[in-house]
Automatic annotation (TrEMBL), chains A, B:
<dbReference type="InterPro" id="IPR036390">
    <property type="entry name" value="WH_DNA-bd_sf"/>
</dbReference>
<dbReference type="InterPro" id="IPR014710">
    <property type="entry name" value="RmlC-like_jellyroll"/>
</dbReference>
<dbReference type="Pfam" id="PF00027">
    <property type="entry name" value="cNMP_binding"/>
</dbReference>
<dbReference type="InterPro" id="IPR000595">
    <property type="entry name" value="cNMP-bd_dom"/>
</dbReference>
<feature type="domain" description="HTH crp-type">
    <location>
        <begin position="146"/>
        <end position="215"/>
    </location>
</feature>
<dbReference type="InterPro" id="IPR018490">
    <property type="entry name" value="cNMP-bd_dom_sf"/>
</dbReference>
<dbReference type="Pfam" id="PF13545">
    <property type="entry name" value="HTH_Crp_2"/>
</dbReference>
<dbReference type="GO" id="GO:0005829">
    <property type="term" value="C:cytosol"/>
</dbReference>
<dbReference type="InterPro" id="IPR050397">
    <property type="entry name" value="Env_Response_Regulators"/>
</dbReference>
<keyword id="KW-0805">Transcription regulation</keyword>
<protein>
    <submittedName>
        <fullName>Transcriptional regulator, Crp/Fnr family</fullName>
    </submittedName>
</protein>
<dbReference type="InterPro" id="IPR012318">
    <property type="entry name" value="HTH_CRP"/>
</dbReference>
<feature type="domain" description="Cyclic nucleotide-binding">
    <location>
        <begin position="12"/>
        <end position="132"/>
    </location>
</feature>
<keyword id="KW-0238">DNA-binding</keyword>
<dbReference type="GO" id="GO:0003700">
    <property type="term" value="F:DNA-binding transcription factor activity"/>
</dbReference>
<keyword id="KW-0804">Transcription</keyword>
<dbReference type="GO" id="GO:0003677">
    <property type="term" value="F:DNA binding"/>
</dbReference>
Length: 227, 227
């Protein structure tokens, strides 16, 4: 991968203009690393952050007895150390190359200079990170919700059936209890209810839930349809 | 919630120093909103972004036939519009208050001025977002992995049993196939294998998997223990 390609694979730099990327590339330092070579030590000052260009890097803490706890392994195109670097703090753990490879070092002082010279650079980096954060939040929501509407639909259909196929059912337990019953947090349960209401499967009024689309709920309950 | 509290609840501002938060508070504009009041229209220039201080705001697109597709609903302490604002672009959708409430508007031009005056402000915002991104990435990994080690352990124990409780088994299908069999992506399967190897449940050598901790694998398979 070329330097520019490696840089633009990092969320922080994804949204940069070509000339901005070039300025970043100019302050970037290529550093070949041998297997086992240390990049930084726990509690060292974070004078910059790293991107893996070749090979793998492990982040670890050493116990007093010398044993290592590996916290994370980063591969090509992944960055590490940027949080303490931006904060102007210290590294919370150590880093070493797992195998022969190459890392790119971005020095804090130079990054700060580029940001002082061009506020748009900071704005574009903030845009990239905000965008990635939105994307991740959406993924988390989707993953968290995944099976809750299914269980919830089954539960609502069951309640309705027990009351002679009633079109509206009363939630017969508090939302907190129902949430744990369904294996969800209260927040996830509320989100599932809102989503199902937005998509016209149900109508929610306090504890009363009107089943608007029984066939749709059956599809949800069977897992055939997902929200 | 006080203005400073509302501001610091937004990931972008979480890591700011008190004096930096105060400078942000000074450029923030309180805006009471009525039920249904429009905040911005799709394709309007993103001259700032918003934080919900009271009530709820919906983000939506209008179809040519006038129907609304609600994309998202934001509640107290949540921000929206920062990506196009930072990019200097246009809003991809419209926003309106769902109920009577209050929003806080952060104007782009003023934010850019603060960043020009103090590079540390940008660095601290970048630190906050990077930190949140790491947190979210961890959550996604945990959610994605959740059930895969369980299924994988069951599969490995089954393979071993079929070969007379062998201590080492050969994966009898390609990793891509195995992944779909277990309902995972190739990437998730690889991560699950590495995690299980890191924690000494197994040892992986190509397609050969050595079962190092049969009791541990049984706990994983039964769901009693999680990675």
């Amino acid at each position: 991968m070329s330097l520019a390609n490696t840089l633009s694979s990092v969320p922080l730099f994804t949204g940069l203009q070509p000339d901005q990327l070039e300025r970043i590339a100019r302050i970037a330092v290529d550093r070949p690393v041998d297997r086992g070579q240390m990049l930084f030590f726990e509690r060292g000052e974070a004078e910059g952050f790293y991107i893996v260009a070749e090979g793998k890097v492990k982040i670890f803490r050493s116990a007093p007895d010398g044993r290592e706890a590996v916290l994370h392994i980063y591969g090509v195109g992944e960055s590490f150390g940027e949080v303490p670097m931006f904060m102007g703090g210290r590294f919370p753990a150590s880093a070493a190359a797992v195998e022969k490879g190459k890392v790119i070092f971005l020095p804090r002082a130079e990054l700060a200079r580029l940001i002082r010279e061009d506020a748009t650079l900071a704005m574009n980096m903030l845009a990239s990170l905000s965008g990635k954060l939105r994307e991740f939040a959406g993924k988390i929501e989707a993953l968290t919700l995944q099976e809750i509407p299914q269980r919830l639909s089954a539960y609502l259909l069951d309640l309705s059936e027990r009351e002679g196929d009633a079109d509206a059912v009363e939630l017969d337990m508090a939302k907190g209890l129902l949430a744990s019953f369904l294996g969800a947090t209260r927040e996830t349960l509320s989100r599932a209810l809102s989503r199902m209401a937005e998509q016209n499967f149900i109508e929610v009024k306090g504890r009363t839930i009107r089943l608007l689309d029984r066939a749709g709920l059956e599809d949800l309950a069977s897992g055939e349809v997902r929200l």
